[in-house]
Amino acid sequence: MNNYQIADHFSLLSKLMDIHGENSFKSKSYSSAAFNIERLPGEISGMDDAELFSIRGIGDATGKKIRVLLATGKLPQLEDLLAITPQGILDMLQIKGIGPKKIAIIWKELGAESLGELEYACNENRLVALKGFGAKTQESILQNIAYFQQNLGFHLWSEAEVVGNNLLQQFTKNLPKQLFSLTGDIRRQSETLEFVELVTDFNKDKLAKIFDAVPGTIVEEEPNDRLMVKMPNQPRVRFHLTDTGHFIHTLFMTTGSSEFLDAFLKGYTIPDAPNSEEEIFAANGLAYIQPMLRETADILDKAKNDTLSELIQPADIKGIIHSHSTWSDGVHTIEQMAKAAIASGHEYLVISDHSQTAFYAGGLKPEQIAAQHQEVDELNAKLAPFKIFKSIESDILSDGSLDYNEQVLNSFDLVIASVHSNLKMSLEKAMERVLTAVRNPYTTILGHPTGRLLLSRKGYPLDHKKVIDTCAEHNVVIEINAHPRRLDIDWRWIEYAIEKGVLLSIDPDAHSVDGFRDTYYGVKIAQKGGLTAKNNLSSFSLVEFEEFLKNRKRHTETV
To answer: Measuring CA to CA, which residue among 328, 346, 544 is closest to residue 416?
Structure first.
C-alpha cells in the first residue's frame, strides 16, 4: 500500500466522522495526517516505527493505525463507519461543492441516501430551503452530479498505464511464445479511459483460467472475441482475442479511434496478414502514424503528404519550469529541489511559489520574496553552471490583475499567471479576466489555463481560440500542466497554438522532487497534439532559455 492509498483511508475516515457528527478534533487530526502523508518524499511502508511516529501530524496513535492498515489492508475505525454508511452517501463525497457537513444535512434533513435522490431533490428545488444552501449551490450540485455520472467508471491514463504495463510485463515474461500488446485508449495515450485493452493470440480458455485464480475477479465473455476481466480496485481489462496470423490486423483495428479508422477504411486497405503496422501504412503510400496520433481523419492527410513532425520525447525536457518549495506549499527546500534537478540531468530550475492571495498555500508576501531571491542568488553562486530562476505563480485576481505591484513583478525573471479561485464565472467574465492577465506585460506563462481536474472538475469556461490568439499577440507562453490530474491545456488545442506561433511549456507544477517525474505525463499528452521540442519552452537549453527571458524583458520594457 503506497502513501496515496494510506492517505485516502485517513481522508475518508475524517470525512465520515464529520458526516456522522463524531469528535471534530479527531476528525481534523486524521485529515491533517492524510495531508502530510500524501506529501511525504519517501514511502511509509519502508519506514521503521521511530521514523514513522516522528512525522509531523502522525504521532504514536495514528502511527499504530497505519501499521494495522499496512498489515491487514483495513482501518478498523473506518470499517465500522463504512458499515453504517449507505453507498450513496459515499458517492456524494465524489461530488464537488458538497463537503461532509453539507452531506450530513442532506442525509438527515432530506433523507436523501443516493445520488438519484439528491438529484431529484435539486430538481424539486428542495435544497434551497436548507441552511447553508441556496439556488446557486443547488444548480452547481446538479451540474457536478451530471459531470460525475458522465465520467463514472473512467480512470486517469497515468493510473491505467501502470496496470497495463504490469500485465504486459507478466504475460511476456511467463508466456514468451505468445503475442501481447496494449491497444485502444491506453495505447493512444488518452488522458482518461474506461478500461485497459490488450490484444493477444493466447487461448481464451487458458487466459480466463489465469484470472479465475485471482480472488474477487470476474471474467466475462463479450461479443467479437473479447474477454472482460474485472479485478478488485483495478481498472477493467478487455482482451481482444485473435490468432497469430491476424495479430497485427487486430492491433491496428483496435488502436485507432472510430473517426480515424472510418477515414482509413474509406480510402485505404489493410494487406492480408501484415507483419507490422509499418507495413500497413507503407503499402498505402503513407508515412507511419504513431498510435497516439490516430485520433482524427486529418492525420491521414499529413501522412500522405509526409508532413508529420518529429514528436517531443521525455529526454527533450531540459529544465524544470513551475515548481514550489517550502517557501509556500512545497515539501522540499529550493536547494533540495535544485540538487534533485541536477541529479536528473536538467540544466535549470524555475522556482515559482504561490503569490500572496493564495494564503491557504502559504503565498509569499513582498518581504518574503526579497529574502527568497537572496537565497536563490546564494544557491546560484554555489551550484553554477546550473541555474535557478526567480519566478512566482501569481494568482489571476477576479478582475484579471496580477497579485503584486509592478515593482515586485519586475523583480522576477518570469511570471506564471494562474487562476486558482472563483472558477464559476460566466464565459464572458472568465474571458475578460484571463485576457486581461494575458495582456499584462509581466505575464510570461499562462498556467493551467482552465484549472480543470480530470474526472472531478470540468474547469474554467474559456474560448480557447481567443485565448491562444491573445497569447500570440502578446508573446505569452501557454502551459501544458503535466500533473496527471490536470494535463491542461487540453491537447486538442496544441496544434492551433503552434499554427499561431505560440510557445507551449510542459511544466510539472512540482511540489516535491518526486513531482519532476510528472513531465513524463505532460510529454505523453503533448505528443497527441503534435508538439515538437522546438515548440516547447522547457526543451530550451539554459542558454536558449536565458535568451528567451532577455527578449521577454525587452518586450516588457517597451510596453
So the answer is: 328
Q: Which CATH architecture fits 314-558?
A: Alpha-Beta Barrel (3.20)
The C-alpha cell of 15 is what? 470525512
pLDDT at 371 over 70: yes
Residue 261 exposed, middle or buried by CB count within 10 Å (0-12, 13-18, 19+): middle
Q: Which residues contact 123 (CB under 8 A, 6 or more apart)?
A: 142
550 — pLDDT class (breaks 50, 70, 90): very high
Instruction: Quote the distance between the C-alpha of residue 555 and its chain's center.
Output: 33
Beta-bridge partners for 200:
180, 241
Distance from C-alpha of 535 to C-alpha of 558, rounded to nearest angstrom: 25
Distance CA 504, CA 538 (A): 8
In the three-class reduction of DSSP (H, G, I as helix; E, B as strand; rest coil), residue 68 is classed as helix
- Whether the CB-CB separation of 328 and 361 falls below 8 Å is answered with yes
The burial class, CB within 10 Å (0-12 / 13-18 / 19+), for 76 is exposed
CB-side exposure of 290: number of CA atoms within 13 Å? 13
Is residue 132 left, alpha or beta, with left meaning phi > 0 and alpha meaning psi from -120 to 50?
Answer: left
CB of 201 closer than 8 Å to CB of 179? yes
Amino acid at position 48, single letter: D
pLDDT in tens, 229-254: 998 878 899 999 999 999 999 999 99
Q: Bigger pLDDT: 36 or 327?
A: 327
Tens-digit pLDDT profile for residues 76-93: 999 999 999 998 899 899
Closest to 523 measured CA to CA, from 509, 513, 538: 538
Let me know if the fold of 3-150 is the same as that of 314-558.
no
pTM score, whole prediction: 0.80
Name the CATH topology of 3-150.
DNA polymerase; domain 1 (1.10.150)
Q: Running DSSP on this structure, what letter comes out for residue 534?
A: G
Tell me which residue has cell 527568497.
372
List Cβ neighbours of 248 (8 Å cut-off, separation of 6 or more).
273, 274, 275, 276, 277, 279, 280
**CA distances from residue 17 to 14, 82, 94, 110, 439 in whole angstroms, order as listed:** 5, 10, 16, 19, 47
Residue 491 CA to residue 522 CA, distance in Å, equals: 10
Compute the distance between CA of residue 208 and CA of residue 201 in angstroms, rounded to an integer.
13
In angstroms, the CA 328 to CA 320 distance is 17
Residues contacting residue 180 through CB under 8 Å, at least 6 positions apart:
168, 171, 172, 198, 199, 200, 202
* Cell (9 digits) for 427: 464565459
> What secondary structure, in 3-state letters, does 455-518 show?
CCECCCCCCHHHHHHHHHHCCCEEEEECCCCCCECCHHHHHHHHHCCCCEEEECCECCHHHHHH
Helix 519-528 and helix 157-174, axial crossing angle in degrees, nearest 10: 90
- CA dist., res. 315 & res. 536, Å (int): 13
For 497-510, how does the pLDDT look when each residue is reduced to its tens digit (9 = 90+)?
999 999 999 999 99
Domain boundaries, the chain: 3-150, 314-558
